[in-house]
Amino acid sequence: MPDLILALDVLSREEALSVAEAAAPHLDAIKIGYPLVLAAGLDIAAPLSEFGIPLIADFKVADIPNTNSLIAQQVFAAGFFAIICQGFCGSDSVAACVEAADDAGGECYVVAEMSHPGALEFLSGKNAELLAQMAVDAGAHGIIAPATRPERVQTLRAIIGDKKILSPGVGAQGGDPETIAPLIDGMIVGRSIYTAEDPAEAARTYARFRR
Ligand code: O7M
User: Fold this and answer.
1) Which tens digits make up the pLDDT trace of 112-156?
2) Orotidine 5'-phosphate decarboxylase domain location, by residue (predicted)?
3) pTM for the model
């Protein structure tokens, strides 16, 4: 059963710290992406680190290897434990993020298949399977796969073996936590926790599906 990862997509430092503090006892990691970093700055990582929970940088890094390396180095220098990159730029671009993660003693995850309906246009099916295999070959620690499509998670699991699957899409996007939990290693939950009237209680509800 999976770790619980909070997607902290709020738009102010105050709200980020307040939600993180409330939910912290029930969390295994906090994922931060463009919404919060553009609103509050990358140095939001410092106060969030004080909750003692690993931070995952979700910048879905997608550039040439040199630029990916520069981005990943900034991420790990800021105190993040893991980085998420896209795979569609190719194995050399992914390898740059994996190398930066390895150098920092951290982890790198590759988006294989996305959770929203539009993913079915490009980021699903055979393409997702190729991306998952490439993530394994590049030495990534795992992939991102959709809680909205449990059958696809099973297909991708057969490709990646015991690499980790972090899975967004439960709650607000319609995925069922009970169905997806046995299939994945990390359940990513955003709005269902941070917009809840009581984020601590909401986090506790999802934490029932943890290991
Ligand atoms: O629970 P939500 O829907 O409010 O938030 C889900 C989070 O997961 C949010 O931060 C999204 O950007 C992210 N996400 C997806 O929803 N779908 C994907 O396919 C991939 C991600 C993601 O985290 O990629 C690394």
Assistant:
1) 999 999 999 999 999 999 999 999 999 999 999 999 999 999 999
2) 3-206
3) 0.98
33 CB near ligand 1 (under 6 Å) = yes
167 is in an annotated binding site: no
Catalytic residues: 58, 60, 63
What is the number of the ligand 1 atom nearest to the C-alpha of 146? 19
**Owner of token pair 């896209």:** 86
Helix/strand/coil for 81: coil
Distances from the Cα of 179 to the Cα of 92, 114, 136, 149, 209, angstroms: 35, 17, 25, 10, 10
Residue in this structure with the two tokens 């998420």, named with its chain if needed: 84
Q: Is 9 annotated as a binding residue?
A: yes
Ligand 1: residue whose CA is nearest its atom 21? 168
Three-state secondary structure call for residue 205:
helix
pLDDT digits (tens, 9 = 90+) for 192-202: 999 999 999 99
Q: What's the 113 CA to ligand 1 centre distance in angstroms?
A: 11
Examine the pLDDT at 211 and tell me if it is beyond 80.
no
Measured in Å, residue 91 CA sits from the centre of ligand 1 at: 23
- What's the first-to-final CA gap in the chain, in angstroms? 4
